[in-house]
Write a structure and sequence with these properties.
Number of helices: 28
Largest sheet: 7 strands, mixed
Radius of gyration: 35 Å
Bound molecules: zinc ion
Strand content: 15-25%
Shape: globular
Helix content: 25-40%
Structural class: alpha/beta
Distance between the termini: 58 Å
Number of strands: 34
Oligomer: single chain
Length: 833
Amino acid sequence: MTDATRTYDPAAIEGKWQQRWDERRTNVTNLEGPREFYALMMFPYPSAEGLHVGNLFAFTGNDIFARFQRMQGHTVFEPMGFDAFGIHSENFALKIGTHPATLIPRNIANFRRQLKASGLMVDWTHELSTTDPSYYKWTQWIFLQLYKRGLAYKKGAAVNWCPNDKTVLANEQVIAGECERCGAKVEQRFLEQWFFRITDYAGRLLKNLDHIDWSESTKAAQRNWIGASDGAELSFRVQDLEDSAGLATATAGLTGEFTAGRTSEFSAPTTDIKVFTTRPDTVFGATYLVLAPEHPLVDNLTSDEQRGEVRRYRERAAKQDLVTRKVNKEKTGVFTGAYATNPATQRPIPIWIADYVLMEYGTGAIMAVPGHDERDFEFATVYSLPIVRVVAPLEGTAGALTEAYTETDNVKLVGSGKFTGLAIPEGKKAITAWLEKMGHARPVVNYRLHDWCISRQRYWGPPIPIIYCDACGVVPVPEKDLPVELPHVEDFKPDDTGVSPLARVESWYRVTCPTCGKAARRETDVSDTFLDSAWYFLRYPSTQFDDRPFDPAITKKWLPVDSYIGGNEHAVLHLLYSRFVTMVLKDAGLVDFEEPFTKFRAHGMIVRDGAKMSKSRGNVVNPDEYIAKWGADTFRTYLMFLGPYEEGGDFRDQSLVGVRSFLNRLWVTATAATADGSPDPAVLRKLHQTIQKVSSDVPSLAYNTAIAAMMEYMNVVRAGERTAHRDEVLPLVQLVAPFAPHVAEELWELFGNKQSVFDSGWPKFDASLAAEDSVTLAVQVNGKTRGTIQVAKTIAQDGAMAAAMADPAIAKFVSGDPKKVIFVPGRLLNIVV
Ligand SMILES: [Zn+2]
Ligand SMILES: [Zn+2]
């Protein structure tokens, strides 16, 4: 049919088709087109090293799915962009002494070149970069929408501070007291920062997980991150002077100037300390309270006698990082000198401070139940605080506690007034209701999720669009004044002051107040990179509009995203923040959906020769080298062949050979195929079985088994080195196309087609052609069924006999020549011995 003398030359073919796709605008999406399908991949951070093979693994998986959808008749949109703000870029820029504004465009150009070389179906007319003012103008606009809705606020908080990176770290970035990035010992600092009230959305973020079509592992990670626990908030009334004094006198070791030293600072005699507990049923066993050292009530509560000790303890605690405090084995604490009333027993209990209680969780205070909590038991033992049993086994007698008794099944409440005898779940409900009636409790769900701190005291990010005016206070930058452009600053190195490098640029931060016109000052923090990526999927289809972040009509048509593919390392932060921002926009009436990604699938990880790839090991696969050597088609197909896509696999250089030889055989077979005669029915049967297999494997991302099926089909086509009929090969070219798009286009053209193979549709599956001409025969020996065999419908007695004897499970009943054989074609073989 064609020029059979040409050999398969990936370099020539791939260059030709990449150029032709550009010229013919093959991959430019008609956003008005029918049956829209939005295939999104997580946009990369454009590092100086260039595209990582892990990026390409992720993108190829998305690309195959997108190309498949296009061949199913959808108008597919596969955009690409760059997540280029953030500390990674900034640190690298500092290291090599090049400004990020110079570095990033260079990195992006290199990424774009690599992405084009890998043959992705990207619509480059909608490319975006988060560092482009035309993009971050709208990131700032998103901030303002949250601010308008009361969801952005500024507060002072203790934070983890890396003295080397000179920035705030999230708890997840602190490993054993050290900075995850650089290993420096992490300190605690107190900073005023901007937060988003994501905790207001915790319940909704959790509930929707029940119905969205996402990878289970991703949903589980989000559930765990949000961390809901049912419980109650209990109020403990702080005792006034006289009550405390009376008790203090009665308590050994706590006499002296306790009452005399009490100052007028303590001006709120009805102060309540609120605690959150998941075990309100044990309130009768609460024998002391513990506050976080930073708790705002500590100053007011502390007696003069204890003041010195409390102050020293608070100073010590302030030096520790938050994570160490949480996991520290050694329990330390200090008595404040104050008492509160246990609302259940009405008895006074002492108030302590201890560093294992954090302001960040719950209310910053706990009721300690040493009888039934291991941590409290340890603490009570060290400081000789009372330990009371309020839970006991149903059977037998309960003796004195030598350790915390934490059993909750087959137990009952004891020493709990009228609640004695109840099981735990009933006790929880009844005690909470009883205390609630008295005004001492309310049932609450507590979340592990914290509000999202979006302030960064660094340079390379979008400035937070806020102005501070002495007369007007906090003034949001009017939307018409966006973007607040990041000024070009030569010295952007962060310093020890804990404020952003922008605070050194007076000409930039001095402004006039948009409200009153007086002198004012800009916010000098920039926003978290995760805010840039929390809405980029909304921008892609609307990049052509400068006057709106996303066009309502286009957004209505294209969103939510049909399919999103990315790494599970983003299971919590990026994916949770994107959901949160979308919910806020929904509540603001700006979009009509609240879940941005209808379907999300997490891809697996690839290792090399069994080891994790890393620069330090020197075993990183550089896509450029592999594409130069093997061609993008072989590289893509191999990446998808090395394991199940959602699990990943092991990259082995020698295994590329098999994939390359498959494409080679496809080339040779297609170029030599004949149009004479008609296709072999047995080959056609295998073809339709293959169409069925690939058509069902691709949508479930089972790429490796789809490729294996195509290879198997190739073996059938070429059995005995026969010449293939073109009707046996053309559909295979279409099946291969999503995986190896360049060679598929070339062969499709060689077969005389004028349009792109991606606009040719998908091979039709015919069940009747796929049906096997085989039957199942029951095999009996002396009338007793001994097994079944699978044989051709037309098989004769001799053939059936031979097949039966080839099965050892049957053959063992037959020794010597049978006396008689009864054969009923299509049904039965009876051997009489
Ligand atoms: Zn660090
Ligand atoms: Zn003003």
